Amino acid sequence: MTLMQPRRTRSAMAFLAAFFLFALVLSSCAMTRQPRQAPVQSGFLGDYSQLQEGKGDQAALVYIDPAADFSKYDAVIIDSVSFWTQESGGSKAVSAEEQQALTDYTYEALNRELGKVLKIATTPGPGVMRLRVALTEVKGARVASKTVTTVVPQLRVITTIGGMAADTAVTVGNACMEMDVTDSVTNQRLAAAVDERWGTKTLRGISFNKWKDAERAIDYWAERMRTRIEELRGGAETVS
Fold it and tell me: pTM of the predicted model, to two decimals?
């Protein structure tokens, strides 16, 4: 004879299952994170004295000219993205081909996102900003070299809710970015930022592409830059 579980017990088990599933989904939403320590300044920006520690979802270090009228800018020149290597760090191990691929990816992401709110210009002029961007410290993730199972035991799922920090077969990648926005005519600095993003060890974040974390960081920066420019321009007309 099969014993029936009390309704209350079945309800409790269903609630716990739903809770763990919801927590797992939440843990996989943030594909990159900002580390606690400040990123290393590469020298790309030259003058860092204006930058202050960012707040909330801002870059780690940020400067915005309080007197700048961003509403008068409707176009941007995006300079070729550069790659600045450090004497010590993960970027030393990045090959020339990989550097080219990452800078191309960054340039395309910036054009895609900023092109939604600004005209992409090629020559300086009134109402035109100039954007300079560099990738400074980039490290690829070490991906698993062996086939992994597609079935995750229930206890394993529960233990990975907080991330897969105990899994030594998968490591995350990171990328640092420095950006400088100036008036294309006067060269006055309008904004600048330095930021670093790391991948997250979640089930959704696992990839067999060692540069996927860096690409996710680049996508995040491009989207945030577009959103921030929209906010700074206020009610100014955007590109249709």
Answer: 0.68
Q: Pull the structure tokens for residue 14.
A: 């269903």
Say yes or no to pLDDT of 172 above 50.
Answer: no
Please name which of 136, 28, 154, 46 lies closest in space to residue 89, comparing C-alpha atoms: 136
Q: Which amino acid is at 59?
A: A
Phi, psi of 133, deg, nearest 5:
-135, 140
> What CA–CA distances, in Å, run from 168 to 19, 140, 153, 174, 217?
27, 15, 18, 17, 22
Spatial distance between the Cα atoms of 104 and 209, rounded to a whole number of angstroms: 17
Q: Are 107 and 219 in contact (CB under 8 A)?
A: no
CA-to-CA distance for 95 and 155, rounded, in angstroms?
40
* φ/ψ (deg, to 5) at 107: -60, -45
User: For residues 234 and 69, is the Cβ–Cβ distance under 8 A?
Assistant: no
DSSP code of residue 101: H
- How many other C-beta atoms lie within 10 A of the C-beta of residue 65? 17
Q: Give the separation between CA 62 and CA 78, rounded to whole angstroms.
A: 19
Instruction: Decide: residue 96, CB within 10 A, 0-12 exposed, 13-18 middle, 19+ buried.
Output: exposed
pLDDT given at position 41: 78
pLDDT per residue as tens digits for the range 214-238: 888 899 999 999 999 999 998 666 6
Q: Tokens 């002029």 map to which residue?
A: 125
- Residue 72 main-chain phi, psi, to 5 deg: -85, -5
